[in-house]
Specification:
Largest sheet: 5 strands, mixed
Helix content: 25-40%
Oligomer: single chain
Number of helices: 13
Mean pLDDT: 96
Strand content: 15-25%
Radius of gyration: 18 Å
Number of strands: 10
Order of helices and strands: EHHEHEEEEHEHEHEEHHHHHHH
Strand order of the largest sheet: 2-1-3-10-4
Length: about 300
């Protein structure tokens, strides 16, 4: 089973990576491997076209390849809540929670990831046109094989952008090297409350997969639950996992990031989440209608 992740050197999709490296898929009789496919809409296109079997990415982004959820389902969460950070250059005068700092600024964000920030600004009363906010791809992320968070951190350091909207690893690197400071961490309460349910890190497969491999959906969820349990029982194993995929410097940073994420580790996808994600997707024009929970989440 090929699992696509849109950003590999990251804590965002680490549970899926750890499930492979810790042997939790193997324990379920599934031979799984990880493949970096950037950006996330390409990962879902590859899922639709049967080039990969599963996407470990942002839940709402499935709509890029599966309009109205036709043909795909979410299996489970990797963790709860929208998980990206707004980081601004450290020399810009702002404080934690000061969303108005984006006015007149250039913010880097990946395709489909940017939708979360755009709707957050709407919810916060900021008009991107009126307030001259530019949200655009980060320079040097045009290739198909990109570790987005690290590239964003480097662009911030090089002053190519004023801020970025990206994962916890890119955030940690930017903060540690002095280039950036955290303005918003939605998962931990910053920004409008509704933004928490805009998206989550999930695992998604096609309806074709579910019908052709009817037992494997439950096995995948069991592997993810076992991975969560393993990381909660011994979070130090996170660095061992990371060393198989990350450069040494980033591997050394992963354990505190996972410690911070552990309270959000749950495979559940609640009806409240689906309702919140649907409302967000409709507001961004990527969804028509109001799919039911069972239209979005697999019955396994």
């Amino acid at each position: 089973m090929k699992i696509a992740v849109p950003d590999l050197i990251s804590n965002s999709y680490f549970p899926a990576v750890a499930a492979v490296e810790l042997g939790k898929f193997a324990e379920q009789g599934i031979d799984a491997s990880i493949e970096l496919v950037f950006p996330v809409n390409k990962a879902y296109a590859d899922l639709r076209d049967a080039r990969i079997d599963c996407v470990a990415g942002s839940a709402h982004s499935a709509l890029a390849a599966f309009p109205r959820w036709a043909g795909a389902k979410l299996l489970c969460a990797q963790a709860q809540g929208m998980y990206w950070f707004l980081v601004m250059r450290s020399d810009i005068n702002c404080t934690r929670g000061d969303i108005n700092v984006v006015k007149g600024r250039k913010i880097g964000a990946a395709p489909w990831v940017d939708l979360g920030l755009k709707q957050l600004l709407v919810a916060a009363g900021i008009d991107a046109v009126r307030d001259n906010v530019t949200i655009a791809p980060v320079p040097n992320t045009g290739g198909s094989s990109v570790n987005f968070g690290l590239t964003a951190a480097k662009a911030l350091e090089d002053r190519l952008i004023d801020g970025f909207w990206a994962n916890g690893m890119g955030t940690e690197v930017a903060v540690r090297n002095g280039a950036g400071k955290v303005v918003l961490d939605v998962r931990r309460g910053d920004g409008p409350k509704e933004c928490f349910n805009y998206t989550m890190a999930s695992l998604a497969v096609t309806d074709r997969f579910l019908s052709g491999r009817p037992q494997d959906g439950a096995k995948i969820v069991a592997a993810m639950e076992a991975t969560h349990a393993a990381l909660k029982a011994d979070v130090l194993c996170a660095e061992e996992v990371a060393r198989a995929y990350f450069p040494p410097g980033e591997a050394a940073l992963i354990t505190p990031l996972i410690v911070r994420d552990l309270p959000f580790y749950s495979t559940a996808i609640a009806p409240e989440f689906v309702a919140g994600m649907n409302a967000f997707a409709r507001a961004r024009g990527i969804l028509k209608g109001d799919p039911r929970h069972e239209d979005v989440v697999a019955r396994i």
